Amino acid sequence: MRKIILFSLSVLLFASCNKKQLAQLTKDKAELQALLDKNKADCDALSAKLKNDISDLSNQIKMKDGDITNERAKLKAMEDELAYLKRTNTNLLDRLSDLSIVSKDGAESIKKSLDALNRQSSYIQDLNSNLRRKDSLNLALVMNLKRSLDNVSDEDVNIEVKKGVVYISLSDKMLFKYGSYDITTQAENVLSKIAKVVNDRKDFDILVEGHTDSVPYSSASVLEDNWDLSAKRATSVVRALQKKYGVAPERMTAGGRGEFVPKVANDSSQNRSRNRRTEIVILPKLDQFFQLFDSGK
């Protein structure tokens, strides 16, 4: 009888332990499943953003490929025309020499013309190569900026290549309070990341342009109108880049454009918000830009 009681107690104790272990395992499984679901959601979100960035870059590459194709077609046409002129001049020179009509000075003049045409052809080829190199540098700069600012909303920061240079458009609501030119704490984080990229690119200059909407500025301050407000905002950004983030002041220019260069019509509150912006334009230094054209002369 005593053995039976001990056996029953052992069975009950074993069952109780198993229930506790089962409950703990069930709890651990639920926690692991929740963690797995969260990680999967994070991975899906990151994958979607990467796909979007890749799509944007692919579209820009396609646009650049189209530009390069057009430039190559123009260059091919010019090279064909140059080859035709060379053949024509050479034939004329041979005929004139055979007929003893051209003097020595005349033949030398034609030869110099041919040499000038050869130099022009070389210049065109060098210029085309330099333009392709500039486009590649711009694309690399855009990719670096997008990587640095990947956690910033697209509504607050827009990066694109226009007219052969890189534009960074910063929204008014992120940079400043309404009607103010004091930079917000949120904007300082964005400006520090931009400064890090441009500080690594010493061969570029920076133009900062302030833009407003068409609503007249009115405030009991020293500012008179939207011209003043846009200029002060551009100056605030330049001053922050210099004093807080070490961007060389001789590389930067600040300017106000008022309401006179809108992105869209000022016919709704949403459009007016898009027009209130500050643009940081990253462009090649002027001396290097002119050397681009002088290198083949």
UniProtKB/TrEMBL annotation:
Record's keyword annotation contains Coiled coil: yes
Coiled coil regions in record: 22-95
Signal sequence, start to end: none
CDD domains, per database record: OmpA_C-like
Domain OmpA-like residues, every copy: 163-286
GO cellular component terms given for this protein: membrane
Entries under Pfam families matching the protein: OmpA
Keywords: Coiled coil, Membrane
InterPro entries linked: Bact_OuterMem_StrucFunc (IPR050330), OmpA-like (IPR006665), OmpA-like_sf (IPR036737)
PANTHER family: LIPOPROTEIN YIAD-RELATED, STATOR ELEMENT OF FLAGELLAR MOTOR COMPLEX
Name of the featured protein: OmpA-like domain-containing protein
